[in-house]
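Q: What would this complex look like in 3D?
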Amino acid sequence: MNKIVTTGDGSHTIYVPEINEHYHSIHGAVQESEFIFIKNGLDLCNTDPVCIFEVGFGTGLNALLTSVKAFGQRRSVFYTAIEKDPLDENTISLLNHHNFAGENGKEIFERIHGAGWGVMSRISPYFSIHKIKGDMLTEKITGNYDLIYFDAFGPDKQPGIWAREILAKISEATVKGGIFVTYSSKGEVKRNLNACGFKVNVTEGPPGKRHIIRAIKI
Ligand SMILES: C[S@@+](CC[C@H](N)C(=O)[O-])C[C@H]1O[C@@H](n2cnc3c(N)ncnc32)[C@H](O)[C@@H]1O
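A: Here is my prediction, written as structure tokens for the whole assembly.
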């Protein structure tokens, strides 16, 4: 059974015993999400509006931090996220991520989680979300995304989702110049991204992680 765990920066993550994996870094869930997806993703993506696709919606932490940033920058974000196994309402209600998201954090967090599956919902004047309840392995992905948050479980735990044909689906839905960010810097992931039309950059990771990947669609 999944367990809520407090990470190094005081923010929660989920531990999944079946695969012995956490949703986030135990050194700090918010710290990791901020560093990888906001600092190395959103902050380097210059479009307005920005269309984001996330693999693995999970706790909604990346969506929450992105919505806060979008509001601060007065920049429109259209956020699409796919999730195979949505968390139950009780688990979501126990997460403390909103404490790290400013004064409206709780309201935004609840709105993001309250948004229906399969429809685009407006959360704030600058943030709309479309949550897809589906399996990335089989779902057809359409769109023109400027930014990809690839936040599935690790390649050692679920290699299928990091496979070339899945990354190719994502590549087809990413605009030229679009950014792909993920926490893994495994050689096979780099090679697969290269083969799918991305220029791969390996860059410094957050505490506890030496490197991450930021790739650009060519
Ligand atoms: C590392 S967790 C990260 C979740 C999220 N980004 C967060 O901040 O909480 C990986 C997520 O990917 C989801 N996932 C795993 N396999 C999937 C698949 N085939 N299709 C869609 N989602 C998947 C898991 O259920 C989990 O929520």
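A: To summarize the key features: Residues 61-73 form the longest helix (13 residues). Residues 23, 56-59, 61-62, 82-85, 135-137, 151-153, 158, 161 surround S-adenosylmethionine (CB under 6 Å).
Q: Very helpful, thank you.
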